[in-house]
Amino acid sequence: MSFPEGFLWGGALAANQCEGAYLEDGKGLCVPDMILGGDQNTPRTICKIIQEGKFYPSHEAIDFYHHYKEDIKLFSEMGFKILRLSINWGRIYPHGDDLEPNEAGLQFYENVFDECLKYGIQPMVTLSHYEMPWHLVEKYQGFYSREVIDFFIKYAKTCFQRYQHKVKYWLTFNEINAGTMGDPLASLMGLGYMTKEDLQREQPCSFDELKDNPQQRYTALHHQLVASALAVIEGHRINKNLMIGNMISHITWYPHTCHPQDILAWQQKDALFNDFCADVQIRGEYPNYMIAYLKNHQIDLSYILETDLDILKKGTIDFYTMSYYISNCVSADPHAEHIGGNLVGGVKNPYLKASEWGWQIDPLGLKYTLKAVASRYPHIPIMIVENGFGAVDKIEKDGSIHDDYRIEYFRAHIQAMSEAIDEGVPLIGYTSWGPIDIVSAGTGQFYKRYGFIYVDRNDDGTGDLSRYKKDSFTWYKKVIETNGEEI
């Protein structure tokens, strides 16, 4: 077991899934504030207007906004070296296109970062973690409008200038490759994009009713890639010591069989989902395979301007980060058995077990993935910024929570990380998702829990928000204390 000295152990959170206080201190409405909860069998519902008597999970979440000192102290007790957080764009610019930032929002995050630094925890900040102001969706269709690039850069520069001496590590967009999927929930949360037809609906509708327009979606994704590159350029201009990275939702794909058709189907799926956005952000240009894919799918590429190509070349990132939860198989056989997963499902792997939510558990896949990423992008540091296990936890009468299943999941994945490091992967950090129970982005549930810390909160909004340590809390504390020698 050979984690390097100074390895960054910690955890990861998203503002919309933990903060609550959804209209407090001048914050504007953001995309998650408009989405009702669901479950593994019921798609979430989008509402254009907040409906009385309906439960919106993000409105209070776990109330990190008022509990952040208590929660950061617990993270410190575990020994965190780093805490990945996000800034909610709507706390800083309530409508997204405001002339001036909201000072109360800026001060809140300054207080949070100071609290982290007090305990020797480095904050790592995601600028946009599925938290676009709702006004930008309604007026501009999110990043489908090129104007939104300028609004994002203004917001990014405000954050860089304000926090440059408190925050070294920055990520531009969370799981930016979600924009390749065509899933309406991913498109709305990641790109702020909805078709005009869906925006004109008067009644709430579930996400499985929404439409996808690939031409507009890939236009929006391109604008987001340009915005990311510009943010890197501006961040380095403000402070050359800032480390600014990307964030990829890495779903490891395997060919279901060795049939050549399965191999080719896997190759295209892997390139489109895992490689495309990272290639642009690290190599600074669109790869040939993606240009061919877009043309073959009748996508008009006139949205790619000559000036954009120069920006992409200049705005390459400093380090590569990813989420890793699952692997899935790919098959050319339309009748192959499918299974669910993070953002997108796939063909079932007969050699793997799955969680209650259908997420296949594959720690060896993490080792494979780390080695593949390191081989594709040599000489750039790598961080795992999301990895965790969603499960139903039972709180005992004495307040204890015995989550051996979660410890088993983490132990196997940390072992895989260690082996990858031993085989040359430049892995510099690991932030588990999420270190405290939060709202699930996909289903809007509290029932699906990830944390080392239990929060008394239920899917109907009941619960007093008390915090309790799970068995995994003590276990992860030991892992960090020994720098991964004792797992």
TrEMBL record:
Species of origin: Massilimicrobiota timonensis
Asked if the keyword Heme belongs to this entry, the reply reads no
User: Would you kindly state one Gene Ontology biological process term found in this protein's UniProt entry?
Assistant: carbohydrate catabolic process
Q: What is this protein called?
A: 6-phospho-beta-glucosidase
In its keyword annotation, does this UniProt entry include Hydrolase?
Answer: yes
- Which terms are listed as keywords in the entry? Glycosidase, Hydrolase
Please give the coiled-coil regions recorded for this protein: none
Lineage top rank: taxon = Bacteria
Protein family according to the UniProt entry: Belongs to the glycosyl hydrolase 1 family.
What Pfam families does its record include?
A: Glyco_hydro_1 (PF00232)
A GO cellular component annotation here is:
cytosol
Which PROSITE patterns did the record assign? Answer: GLYCOSYL_HYDROL_F1_2
Q: Where is the signal peptide?
A: none
Q: Which InterPro entries match?
A: GH, GH_1_N_CS, Glyco_hydro_1
* GO molecular function terms noted in the UniProt entry: beta-glucosidase activity
